[in-house]
Amino acid sequence: NNRHWEECMEFAVQTARRAGQVIREAVKLDKCVTTKSSAVDLVTETDQQVEELIISTLRDRYPSHRFIGEESSAAGERCFLTDSPTWIIDPIDGTCNFVHSFPMVAVSIGFAVKKELEFGVIYHCFEETLYTARKGHGAFCNGLRLQVSKEKDVSKALILTEIGAKRDPETLKIFLGNMEKLLKAHAHGIRVIGSATLALCQVATGAADAYYQFGLHCWDIAAAAVIIREAGGVVMDTSGGPLDLMSRRVIAAGTPEMADYIVQQLHSISYERDDHD
Ligand code: IPD
């Protein structure tokens, strides 16, 4: 089966590149923008077209596999993992960036078997950089091996986060309070780049020391989790427990010490699980 997953990953790479080309063309055109869970949770026709392109391409080749996609879920499809080989897809991660032509947009394709993540492919559409990892085989960016940062001390850390779609006063207070705590601990800086997957890739390359977020989705985490782990990093739940792909929250870091420190600082923001009924 290992050989088979390797072939699946090669096909995922080709498919992500094709999708990225569609996104690069579409960003130049007028966009038809609508909203989903909140006024800042955006979707465009391109998100839907690209998801359709990716899923139909993969389904033609692997008809027995299952698919979880951001836009299929938004359209009401149930989102849950079974033991079957399952593709977990974000056609455009960084939709708000895409809408503004802010050049941080990625295609993310993760793959799980028996509920275990096997490989991840993330394609930065504008830089044309490709992040890949397969369980047990290392993580790469454009073919070069990735290694996370070894930093343990928050006062020497560059930390990334994302805001999430909820913007009510209580949520904002917790979000800003979490940032304040890390700034008071003298983190070198905090960045919000508008794409959870590309932010997570920065942890894999060692450019960032940690990432945390409440409110992201399984399709934002799946591919990146394999890439970070294969680059030597840790990906866990914000409680400090094991990662729960459907829980809408994550901490990733180069070292367990850094992750544990951030776990201690964060107040939780609750979002409805991806696998809710
Ligand atoms: C979103 C982006 C955003 C993050 C959200 C994600 P989308 O993905 O990664 O930066 O804050 O939580 O859902 O909607 O652009 O695919």
Automatic annotation (TrEMBL):
A GO term for molecular function: inositol monophosphate 1-phosphatase activity
CDD domains per UniProt: IMPase
Binding-site residues for Mg(2+), renumbered to this chain: E70, D90, I92, D93, D220
Biological or metabolic pathway of the protein: Polyol metabolism; myo-inositol biosynthesis; myo-inositol from D-glucose 6-phosphate: step 2/2
Matches recorded under InterPro entries: IMPase (IPR033942), Inositol_monoP_metal-BS (IPR020583), Inositol_monoPase_Li-sen (IPR020552), Inositol_monophosphatase-like (IPR000760), Inositol_monophosphatase_CS (IPR020550)
GO BP terms: inositol biosynthetic process; inositol metabolic process; phosphatidylinositol phosphate biosynthetic process; signal transduction
Organism domain of life: Eukaryota
Keywords of this entry: Hydrolase, Magnesium, Metal-binding
Catalysed reaction, written as an equation: a myo-inositol phosphate + H2O = myo-inositol + phosphate
This enzyme's EC code(s): 3.1.3.25
Cofactor(s) of this protein: Mg(2+)
Family: Belongs to the inositol monophosphatase superfamily.
Record-given protein name: Inositol-1-monophosphatase
Species in which this protein is naturally found: Lepisosteus oculatus
